[in-house]
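Can anyone check this?
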Amino acid sequence: MVLRIIAITAGFALLLSCGGITESNKTISGAELYQSNCASCHGGDGKLQAAGAKDLSISMMSDDECSLIIRNGRGGMRAFGNELSEAEIKAVVEHVKTLRK
């Protein structure tokens, strides 16, 4: 019984050390990030155009151009470079591409 407890404890410690079950490893999808940061102006479908936001459903920008705007902002849009990681920015760009016609 003691050996079983030690084995379970060791396995749990291994999971923690590998980052297997920590909150910081929670992956947020591009769609979730878009919904919480972008949809209020661009709309869930990219067409809202509130506060001067562009219609993302007809955007022809490259991935690099989109990333740059998300990171640095443009016009009335605030910058997200200090709030989102590069991976999160890339995920948002991938989601924005799904909104295109």
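Reply from J.R.: I decoded it. Residues 29 and 91 are 7 Å apart (CA to CA).
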